[in-house]
Predict the structure.
Amino acid sequence: MSFRGISRANAASGMGVADHSKNTFMELKQKKVHRYVIFKVDEKKREVVVEKTGGPAESYDDFTASLPENDCRYAVFDFDFVTSENCQKSKIFFIAWSPSTSRIRAKMLYATTKDTFRRELDGVHYEIQATDPTEMDLEVLRDRAH
């Protein structure tokens, strides 16, 4: 088995993080070329890979519509807002999406991989664990960011 391109495989799940996943996150964080990135666990490659990216003009609704209804995913969302002092700000949210309707095996796999993956994403401001859409509603992000 080759571990090229994988950093620190998770002892519990044996999953690593693809370099492309880390690079795509850095593009979101530093270059603002993505509004969001959705990641999935690729069991064959045994690593976390990029499933989809959203352009800077995409909305939060576009992002939530991109998450599968019955399967787990990790995601980062670059949330722009204006403070009460009228300053433009941006906060990066890490979202662990684990819908109650997903398979138990998927929930366990994502739960055991989450901490290792999350540590690779330096610059995330807030983390949200969501099992249904109301737990990651836009209002939840607004409340956490302010």
Q: What stands out?
A: The first strand starts at residue 6 and ends at 7.
